[in-house]
Structures are given as structure tokens and as C-alpha cells.
TrEMBL record:
Protein name: Cell division protein ZapB
Keywords: Coiled coil
Organism encoding this protein: uncultured Sulfurovum sp
Annotated coiled-coil segments of the chain: 7-55
Amino acid sequence: MGTKTVLEELDRKILLVLERYNQLEEENSLLKETLASSKETELQLRKEILQLKEEDELKDLELEEIASRISEIMGLNFNSEKVPMAS
């Protein structure tokens, strides 16, 4: 093989390596963007979960309060029925 042929072959291989390097760089860039977007989505979902938990806790408290009021009302009604009537 002549020197020119060897140099041409080296040039071809270098170009292939550079092409592959550029492809990998592009893929890496896209993966970084995807990761950043995924992290942002994760943070938003975590915030939504916390908000839903807080809302759920508030609803539980409201239900406890309603149940307590119903118990009080039922207790008052039972007590008023037990009061002897004056004849």
C-alpha cells in the first residue's frame, strides 16, 4: 500500500470517528434535556402530591368535625326525649 492510500484510509477512519463522536454528543445533549425535563416533571408531581395530601387531611378534619357535630346533635335529641314532660 502506498503512503497516499494509507493516509486516505486514516482520513476516512478519522472522519468516521468524528462523525460518531458528533452523534454521541447530540444524543448526550438530548438525554440531558430529557433528564432536566423529567426532573422538573417530578418536582411538579411531588408538589401536586403534597397538595392532595393536605387537601385530604383537611377533608378528614372536616369529616371529623361533622361527625362530632352530628354526635352532639344526636346526644341533644336523645337528652331532650328523655326529659320528663310535665303533666
